[in-house]
Amino acid sequence: MWFADIFCIMGWLLIAFAKDYWWLDFGRLATGFAVGLISYVAAVYISEIAPKNIRGGFTSASSWMMCCGFSLIYFIGTVVSWRTSAIIGAVPCVLQAIGLFFVPESPRWLEYTKTFQQFPKATILELFQRRYAHSLIVGVGLMVLTQFSGITAISSFMSSILESADFSTTFGSRAIAILQVVDSHLSIPVTAVSVVLIDKSGRRPLLIVSAAGMGLSSLLIGFSFLLQDMNRLKEVTPIVVLIGLLTYLETYSMGMAGIPWLIMAEIYPINIKGVAGSVVTLSNWFFSWVVTYTFNYMFDWSSAGTFFFYSIISGATVLFTAKLVPETKGRKLEDIQASMTHFLH
């Protein structure tokens, strides 16, 4: 986490004091590296220090805090310059770097460190052994399906999607920016509900409801664009697209936003947790880039077809969760990992 904070601070300062686009590129690269690292490490740390009966709520609370952070910086970004926003972004990183001096190492990690020091360091090739196949499929599968459900593309291109639906023509382009701020605030109570429910209803039900909601929302958006292409109900379709987008983002916040990271932190034995986490995190951010990069090409090809594709992937996520993802609510980490690998440490 210290390592991530250093890169994050460096990245934000490069952006804040950028003299040309190279500074911006290296700044974004540094912050991206830091986010990729800390997104897994923080989830693992929280899962290792929290009691089993509230582990899900504690880990999901980090997603809720991210929603609060997104909402706050989105609002701040409407009233200050991007350079000032970058400086503000560096402040929490500095505070965390200082705060880590007072945070103990994970007791679970300390407990097993001496045990595993006598064994060779785990490699990526060891991860592909038969006994780890189930846990690897679950971890990578959830991340890949989440990205191919379109979340990164929809979040990044929400303004373009609304403009293509003639929303700006109907209500004015300034309304789009306001709606994006409103949506970031709406995610806060939805994520808070999932924090409360996750250790009562379990991980799997929330994942299934979340993925199903995303799929139905994508289907609604796809039909709206299809009607628009057919010159039908053009006065109504912008509103339907807006409703679909808001519903999609809120149902995503309910489960798919944070639970895959929680499950990933729970299912891997400590001897391969570092390697497995690296592979799964890499798959998440790599396919996030793929989906974001290809969105404009897909959307130009067929706006309706793009969302129908996202809807199909969300439906596949429901089936994947029902068939392969274990319920980890209220179970010890050792029991979860033993049941998936049939290998007790």
From TrEMBL:
This protein's species is: Vitis rotundifolia
What lineage is this protein's organism placed in? Eukaryota, Viridiplantae, Streptophyta, Embryophyta, Tracheophyta
Q: Which topology term describes how it sits in the membrane?
A: Multi-pass membrane protein
Listed InterPro entries:
MFS_dom, MFS_sugar_transport-like, MFS_trans_sf, MFS_Trehalose_Transporter, Sugar/inositol_transpt
| Keywords carried by this UniProt record | Membrane, Sugar transport, Transmembrane, Transmembrane helix, Transport
> What is an example of a Pfam family matching this protein?
Sugar_tr
Q: Where are the transmembrane segments?
A: 28-46, 58-76, 82-103, 136-157, 177-198, 205-227, 239-263, 275-295, 307-325
Indicate where this protein resides in the cell. Answer: Membrane
Q: What is its main location?
A: membrane
The residues covered by the Major facilitator superfamily (MFS) profile domain are 1-329
One cellular component term from this protein's GO annotations in UniProt: membrane
Which PANTHER family would you find in this protein's record?
Answer: MAJOR FACILITATOR SUPERFAMILY (MFS) PROFILE DOMAIN-CONTAINING PROTEIN, PTHR48021
Q: Which family does it belong to?
A: Belongs to the major facilitator superfamily. Sugar transporter (TC 2.A.1.1) family.
Q: Which SUPFAM superfamilies match?
A: MFS general substrate transporter
One term of GO molecular function = transmembrane transporter activity
- Please identify the protein, giving its name as recorded: Major facilitator superfamily (MFS) profile domain-containing protein
